[in-house]
Automatic annotation (TrEMBL):
The record marks T262 as: Essential for prephenate dehydratase activity. This is Bifunctional chorismate mutase/prephenate dehydratase. It comes from the Bacteria. Residues 95-269 form the Prephenate dehydratase domain.
């Protein structure tokens, strides 16, 4: 058998497999439509929750558990995420608010979590994201909460203090910054970027572009927009911004820390059921007294519950009063978690559950 004959035979097999895949995807979509019909039939006038974060997390974990390659687990899960996104859009297209403008890492996080079949709308500020979801204009919102290099996003934490919204998911996004410009490198005199991105690439800039002016702007997308049309300008931004504004990548992955990661939260109006591998976030308002933090944390140690994050923010009520933001493993419906929260409540002025949600799958 000749090379062309062998290739022709393999291509015929690929065509047959593609046909089967296409049919199975459409069969899955029909099941999704049937699910929507069942939910509507039993809704009895109540608002229908088409998107179930815990169910999607369970499906993606199963995809990764049964995957046998050669496609990597995360790549296979991303493929299924897009199939699920398309199927969900047949039930009800989700509207998702994110901290904009278009081309930011927050938009990338929204698409990573929900897939590309959702309707994403950019917002000017974190407060606007919260406001749109609270008003019901948007189904969900995506906001940054912490970066592995630069730390916590305080505006996001403070927004929870006066909000009734629930955290219903999280996204961990590896952040790769690129040095972008349409100008001859020898003529670059300034670089635009968000202040955090400038900080995350400080060593790289010091060693290669120490003499150019560093100009902070509201977002990396805005930096790319300016640099795309200004002579002598460069920007630090990601792939999405480079593609959106047609600007050349002069250097890739220039972040100082190779594992630079930003965590984003998914916020919505409904509580999320347990998925089997969850986290819970709470806000604790503590009395201004010696050992206040110890009394908050001791119950977690007694029940051997792993804390994944602790942040402190001024409460805005009185002098030297603080809110503790605590993330820990487990779901609020677990009996041991209930016991811990009961003990914490006894020694605090307020315990507010911000949400129990599936751990990031991808």
């Amino acid at each position: 058998m000749s090379e062309e004959q062998e290739l022709s035979k393999l291509r015929d097999q690929i065509d047959q497999i593609d046909q089967q895949i296409q049919q199975l995807v459409n069969d899955r979509a029909k099941c999704a439509q049937a699910v929507a019909e069942v939910k509507e039939r039993y809704a009895q006038g109540q608002q229908i929750q088409f998107y179930r974060p815990e169910r999607e997390a369970q499906v993606l974990r199963k995809v990764m558990d049964r995957n046998q390659g050669p496609i990597a687990n995360e790549d296979m899960a991303r493929l299924f995420r897009e199939v699920m996104s398309m199927c969900l859009a047949l039930e009800e297209p989700l509207k998702v608010a994110y901290l904009g403008p278009q081309g930011t890492f927050t938009q990338a996080a929204a698409l990573k979590h929900f897939g590309h079949s959702v309707l994403c709308e950019s917002q000017v500020s974190i407060s606007d994201v919260f406001r749109e979801v609270e008003a019901g204009t948007m189904n969900y919102g995506v906001v940054p909460v912490e970066n592995s290099t630069e730390g916590v996003v305080t505006h996001t934490l403070d927004s929870f203090a006066g909000s009734s919204l629930q955290i219903c998911g999280e996204v961990a996004l590896r952040i790769h910054h690129h040095f972008l410009s349409n100008t001859d490198p020898e003529k670059i005199t300034r670089v635009y970027s968000h202040p955090q991105s400038l900080a995350q690439c400080r060593q790289w800039l010091d060693s290669r572009w120490a003499k150019i002016e560093r100009i902070p702007v509201s977002s990396n997308a805005e930096a790319a927009r300016r640099a795309a049309s200004e002579e002598g300008a460069a920007a630090i931004a990601g792939d999405a911004a480079a593609e959106l504004y047609s600007i050349k990548v002069l250097a890739s992955s220039i972040e100082d820390m190779p594992d630079n990661t930003t965590r984003f939260l998914i916020i919505g109006r409904d509580e999320t059921d347990a998925s089997g591998d969850d986290k819970t976030s709470i806000m604790v308002s503590s009395r201004n007294q010696p050992g206040a933090l110890y009394h908050v944390l001791a119950p977690f140690h007694e029940k051997d519950i792993s804390l994944t994050r602790i942040e402190t923010r001024p409460s805005g009520v009185g002098t030297w009063n603080y809110n503790f933001f605590i993330d820990f493993e487990g779901h609020v419906t677990n009996e041991n978690i209930k016991e811990v929260l009961g003990k914490v409540s006894a020694s605090a002025t307020e315990v507010k559950v911000l949400g129990s949600y599936p751990k990031a799958v991808l």
